Automatic annotation (TrEMBL):
Pathway: Cofactor biosynthesis; molybdopterin biosynthesis
Protein name as catalogued: Molybdopterin molybdenumtransferase
Record-annotated MoaB/Mog domain positions: 197-332
Family: Belongs to the MoeA family.
GO terms for cellular component: cytosol
InterPro entries linked: MoaB/Mog-like_dom_sf, MoaB/Mog_dom, MoCF_biosynth_CS, MoeA-like, MoeA_C_domain_IV, MoeA_C_domain_IV_sf, MoeA_linker/N, MoeA_linker/N_sf
UniProt EC number: 2.10.1.1
Essential cofactor(s): Mg(2+)
Summary of the function given for this chain in its UniProt record: Catalyzes the insertion of molybdate into adenylated molybdopterin with the concomitant release of AMP.
Keyword entries, A-Z: Magnesium, Metal-binding, Molybdenum, Molybdenum cofactor biosynthesis, Transferase
Catalytic activity: adenylyl-molybdopterin + molybdate = Mo-molybdopterin + AMP + H(+)
Amino acid sequence: MSLKPPPLKDDCFALPPGVDWTPVDEALAMLRGRLRPVVSSEEVPLMQGAGRVLARDVMALRSNPPQPNTAVDGYGFAASALPEGDAVLPLVQGRAAAGVPFDGVVPEGYAVRVLTGAALPEGVDTVVLDEDCAVNATHVAFRGGVKPGANTRRAGEDVAAGEVALAKGRVLTPADLALASAVGHGALPVYRRLRVGVLSTGDEIVAPGGEAGAGQIFDANRPMLLGVLERMGFEAVDLGQVADDRAALRACLDGAGTDVVLTSGGASAGDEDHVSALLREAGAMAEWRIALKPGRPLALGMWDGMPVFGLPGNPVAALVCTLIFARPALSLMAGAGWVEPQGFDVPAAFSKRKKPGRREYLRARMRDGRAEVFKSEGSGRISGLSWAEGLVEIGDGAQEIAPGDTVRFIPYGSFGL
Ligand code: AMP
Ligand code: MG
């Protein structure tokens, strides 16, 4: 009997001899270099623009504010005609209100009633606040020392007509819609939404709420990934699930009709890993053994010109790979450019020892100004994903983290969730 068991490994991520693991940053650089925007553009009503990607620079058609106006309710006059010290000015008849300008010119040495947002009447460059005035039927009195231009807004002080108000590639926020409207737009040029298919693979996977027999598990990845893509502003397309069956998988990819597909499961090099096998068969497969925990193999391939991200089956690894790899890649394909999540350096509330040679992401959340991590690093622990509000990123080099040490926390929000 010549069959001998191999020596035990205490770390299932240890480098097998002769295998080169791709560092996360190298894998990201390759992705960034190889992908291109794939979406055409269209016009949408401004009101429906939230979350869409601008396909062109948007110029200010009009200045904001369009004319000088008053920032407060009060009395307006020309600063140059003020006396030394306290002032008592005669009032002109009428007033200036928002949308209802004063009809006429305010003579030097006179004041006029003005309401917030009103265009400054001709002859007015300065406003004194109601609360600083005493008034009767004919005059207004206020203390000296009012600065010329006080309580007014200059035309174009926010944005001048002709300036670029919003740049191409921007993912439109609600605030961006406010700005675009203010500078005169009613419709916006945006890219068609990137269509992203989501497919679960595995003989053991049962649709949510279905009948699960012995050895079967409910599909956790598909609802999660569809939700992630929706939140990120893509058009998420549910491609359902397929068994560990190459023909079924092939038929599903052939019929996807999407710009890109995210599969989960079957991405390694095992007997039932049909995603990687099929992509390899198609001849356009890069199997990346990425130095990442949780993560491991990520199968990247082209299926008839359509990129396929073969994510790991473990839900924790599937989510981490989606946030770290798929998100910037999809953003680039959607016309929004490569994106890097904004992280924050914060004190750790935990301790950890880590070997060199791979990047790690821990399920984490902020409490009392410190980053806590989930009690287990097990990559099948879905409850930890739900518990977490972001990830702690631990660099590729060796690290020993003690409570109070600085770590990088990336909130889920920084990934567009
Ligand atoms: P695989 O990558 O196919 O070897 O799967 C790795 C692990 O993830 C296995 O325990 C699978 O049962 C599990 N898994 C695969 N797909 C899903 C899914 N959609 N939902 C929950 N667990 C999954
Ligand atoms: Mg599987």
